[in-house]
Design goal:
By secondary structure, the protein is an alpha+beta fold. Helix content is 31%, strand content 30%. Strand 2 and strand 3 form a beta hairpin. Keywords: Acyltransferase, Cytoplasm, Ribonucleoprotein, Ribosomal protein, Transferase.
């Protein structure tokens, strides 16, 4: 598996995966992904040995050090390829980009998504807030999580 800059030709597949991954909420459309790329946000894809998209992730960075902030906009992995390292690889790519900007990173995650919360905690995130009825139309709550910037090249391995 390789993590590369997300290709525009994969945006339709991203939207298809969104509908599978987030059926009870408002999944992103191809146009929404295109708008994110047009705004210059950082999006990556996880690709298999046949160059098929397994998952995608996006990050926005605002401000400059030492006050830069980053926000994880989305991470999604094809259900057939979950628990094989794609989500971890995508998150690490986003965090490397945030760390280049020395940015504190924020994200929202469903309070009932224990797998994702565990992944985020393992990468230095802590829960700092609760957003009631954040996801629509399901009305699911979300935790806000935060991770301080890292300056070392492999912060996860060093924390181990």
């Amino acid at each position: 598996m390789r993590v590369l800059k997300l290709r525009r030709s994969d945006l339709k597949r991203c939207a298809e995966l969104e509908r599978v991954l987030f059926p009870g909420d408002d999944p992103w459309s191809r146009e929404m992904f295109a708008a994110e790329l047009d705004m210059g946000h950082y999006y990556v894809g996880a690709y298999d040995e046949h160059d098929r998209l397994l998952g995608y992730a996006g990050l926005a960075v605002v401000g400059r050090p030492p006050h830069a902030e980053a926000e994880v906009h989305t991470i999604g992995v094809d259900p057939e390829h979950q628990r094989r390292g794609a989500g971890t690889a995508l998150l690490r790519a986003l965090l490397a980009r945030a760390d280049e900007h020395r940015a504190t990173t924020f994200l929202e995650v469903r309070t009932d998504n224990d797998t994702a919360i565990g992944l985020y905690r393992a990468h230095g995130f802590e829960i700092v807030g609760l957003r009631k009825r954040y996801y629509q139309p399901s009305g699911a709550d979300a935790h806000t999580m935060r991770r301080p910037p890292r300056t070392s090249p492999n912060p996860v391995e060093e924390a181990g």
